[in-house]
Amino acid sequence: MNIVSKFFLWTRRAIKPTHIVGLIMLAALWGFRHWNPPPLQSLQLKTFDFYQTLQPRKGKDLPIPVTIIDVDEASLEKYGQWPWPRTLLGQLTDRLRESGVGVIGFDVFFPEYDRMSPALVAENLHGLDDNLATQLKALPTTESVLANSLRKMRVVLGQGTLLESTDFGGSFPLKAKVALMGNRDRILKRIPRFPGILRNVPELESAALGLGMVALEPEIDGVIRRVNMALRVGEEVYPTMTLEMMRLALGQENLL
Fold first, then answer.
1. 205 and 96 in one domain?
2. Around Cβ 174, how many Cβ atoms within 10 Å?
3. How far, in whole angstroms, is CA 80 from its chain's centroid?
4. Closest CA to 107 of 70, 146, 65
5. Which residue, 8, 198, 204, 228, is most buried by CB atoms nearer than 10 A?
6. How far apart are CA 65 and CA 75, in angstroms?
7. What percent of the chain is modeled with pLDDT above 90?
8. Over 90: is that where the pLDDT of 9 sits?
9. Within-domain flag for 33
10. Against a cut of 0.90, is the pTM above it?
């Protein structure tokens, strides 16, 4: 009996039908896990939520407290409907600075000019006296008032993401450069990418010390369980608002 015949005889004796069935099931499970279909993702998310309910992660006392200022119904009733005039946001920024706040982050966007700016009011209010219109146009814009407040404080303005490309006549301004350690291509593949960016008006962006991306990606069940620390727009890497606020709070110029 030659070697080949001995090998086939050994395999017939050593490998049982149950072994073949087990290998097929193992390959099927591996393929199912690699494919990661929506039902399996839902099961993983529900299991994660169950673990968090069973033994939730305990929060740590931060040396520097974090406060969220929310525009609630009482605020809207007192100061009027949103969006508020940017002069009011400037007053809010000044009050926070006087209260000793270290860093302020605006998670709202200012892509258009304030309709309550005196010059725009003069243009849109028909039948206005010419002298009064001239006086209104001579007043500072609400953007300039807010910009003056931003310059006195460490402020991060939020920038949104767009699903279509945008061209602003050059690369987007970065307040801080993001340096990547390790295999750049491998890292970039793990950072979510968007084709466009929603900017603020130039007067405000130039006055702010930081610019941070704001983009939330919910899971397949609509629940947000994780927040990115960086995003890509084109080939550039941008810090999110959280990371940019940490940079300003720590007094760093760049991000690594």
1. yes
2. 15
3. 28
4. 70
5. 204
6. 23
7. 30
8. no
9. yes
10. no
